[in-house]
Write a structure and sequence with these properties.
alpha/beta, globular, Collagenase (Catalytic Domain), 6 helices, single chain
């Protein structure tokens, strides 16, 4: 018998079948591990590209102390978005957002926070801004406290001491650092009367005890933000601490208020100011689990 030859089309078909088998096998692996996707690592450069992060380190045995668990390393896999749709893999992962906003990894201080009292939170009262939630992605967050020049030296030191007390309380939950140069600060705190507030329902302007504002800027094509806090000179003693504590809560990411007087971010000043509550920290943690465009490349 003559030697049988392989038709080019049959040969191509077998190659395609072999490639398809490899792809199907890979999909089975991905589909069984879809819950272990870490997060959308960055905004795709186009609607066609989709980037997912797969952990390469095996999960530690059950019961392994956190201190002995290795930080997982990941690899980026760029795949075609339409291909994912065809095979039934959803083109989003936990924490991703249709606007392209992406969450950052939780700072260790918040990751380790656990509320044993199950006090709940007031996350529903926190609204994202036009750039997403106002979270910090680089730590420690640098805080500058301006020494008042209008006060005598001892009075100025006392004012700074009260403000630093509030900074120290929040530093338990987020890494903060006091800096001496205002130009490098992420948050600047000043003793100055905020502008009067004008309400639509009243013609009389209203004095404010404090005011927190932020602005956006880019550096090396990354979007960042910075805050300025004005504390009224009328605030003294425990009310100064309470005012600084409240405004720092805003500057650290809680861009909203609580309906309960027992929380630092209650919308009004109270006779006996509370310290940072479990609900405050629960809310802060939820905020830092949300997507944002801050800290990511500007498209």
């Amino acid at each position: 018998m003559g030697k049988k030859s392989l038709h080019p089309q049959n040969y191509a078909f077998k190659i395609k079948a072999f490639v398809a088998l490899i792809i199907i096998t890979g999909l089975l692996v991905i589909s069984t591990n879809v819950q272990s996707f870490a997060f959308l690592t960055k905004t795709p450069k186009s609607d066609k590209d989709f980037i997912i992060s797969l952990p390469t380190s095996p999960s530690p045995p059950s019961g392994t102390p956190r201190s002995k668990q290795a930080t997982p390393r990941g690899v980026e896999l760029r795949v075609d978005r339409s291909w994912l749709l065809q095979v039934g893999v959803p083109p989003t992962t936990e924490g991703s957002d249709p606007r392209g906003w992406t969450p950052h990894l939780l700072p260790p201080t918040l990751e380790q926070w656990q509320d044993s009292t199950n006090s709940g939170d007031y996350f529903s009262g926190v609204a994202p801004t036009k750039v997403g939630y106002l979270v910090w992605s680089q730590f420690p967050v640098k805080v500058y406290v301006e020494t008042p020049k209008s006060l005598r030296e001892e009075q100025g030191k006392a004012w700074v001491k009260h403000v630093l007390q509030a900074v120290g309380e929040w530093s338990v939950y987020l890494p903060l650092a006091i800096v001496e140069q205002r130009e490098i600060a992420d948050i600047t705190i000043i003793r100055k009367s905020p502008p009067l507030q004008f309400n639509r329902d009243s013609k009389r302007p209203r004095a404010r005890s404090a005011l927190t504002t932020y602005d956006l800027y880019t550096k090396e094509n990354i979007l960042y933000h910075r805050f300025q806090i004005l504390l009224s000179p009328s605030q003294t003693g425990k009310y100064l601490v309470a005012s600084a504590r409240h405004e720092l809560g805003h500057a650290l990411g809680i861009w909203g208020h609580s309906p309960l007087e027992s929380d630092v971010l209650y919308f009004s000043q109270v006779r006996n100011p509370p310290t940072i509550s479990a609900r405050d920290v629960n809310t802060l943690k939820r905020v830092y689990q949300q997507p944002t465009s801050l800290g990511w490349s500007v498209q």
